[in-house]
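Data deposition worksheet. Section B asks for the primary sequence of the deposited chain exactly as it was used as input, without tags or linkers unless they were present during the calculation. Section C holds the resulting structure in token form. Section D is free text for depositor observations; keep each observation to a single sentence. Incomplete worksheets are returned to the depositor.
Section A, Depositor: J.P.
Section B:
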Amino acid sequence: MAVRPGSVTFVAVLTYINGILNVIGGVILLITRDQVAGSASGGAAGITTAAIISILLGIIVIVVARGLLRGSPGARAVVTVVMVVDIVNGVILLLFTNQVASGIVQILWSLLIIVLLFTRRANAFFTGR
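Section C:
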């Protein structure tokens, strides 16, 4: 049985933090939806939907982080797919908006996480489960 490499632990901790922040952000959005709805298109219903989706995604991300720590290949696949989507989003930010710095950071961050999940030691950890 392979020992969990530090890179996988690092990615799992970042994933936990991301999930917790999604849940907190969704709850704050629910609490402040009336104030936010006044300045956003879509009104309160759109804000409520976004908040609920944020909370649900946060919970899913927390579960996936736990799977990473346990060596679940499925959790690694989910994180990889999310990071690929983030890379595509970063490219869209670069090409179609003025958010060049955000796009570059998003692409580089997602690539870093993918690389850390597929190092030789990480591969041994996930295949040893």
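Section D:
The chain has six helices and no strands.
The CA atoms of residues 41 and 54 lie 18 Å apart.
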